[in-house]
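Lab channel / #folding
Pinned by the channel admin:
"Please post every new chain as: sequence first, then the structure tokens as a reply. Keep commentary short and put observations after the output so the thread stays searchable."

First post following the new format, from NK:
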Amino acid sequence: MIDLDVAIGLVMLVGLVGTVLPLLPGLPVILVAALVWVIAGGSDAGRWWVFAIVAALCVAGMVLGSILPARRAARAGASRWILIGGAIGLVVGAVVIPVVGALVGWPIGVFVASMAATHDTTEAWTLTRATIAGVGIGTAVQFTAGVLAVAVWAVAAWRW
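Reply from TO:
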């Protein structure tokens, strides 16, 4: 039988992949894995403290990873409708091209919505680039939060 800590660690690594690829909800996977570790390990106070730190890192990563891209896009002049266009493109892309379609569909959706709003290719491309940069920043924030959360858990798992 596989050791619980090894299994939890593997699930957390899958969560880290999910922070970069839109296939999995990365930080929630890490958070749930940490909760399973606490409950399966006897639920002592030290483990709950570790879970609290992991939870704080994951929640902060999720919040900042959502707010920062939207602010960057808004600063460049992208309206909510343009971001909604990106979300529609993401869903359509994911359905039409499984696995990588969301990565392709989202910027196409942003560009098409920008073109509909501005009727200017240069402006639409500028808004699309700014939105892509914002998502890159949000992804980096979520990945960093995930790495920190996994590191906190790994140190604690090694200790217990």
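NK: The chain has one domain: 4-159.
TO: also worth noting, The chain has a mean pLDDT of 90.
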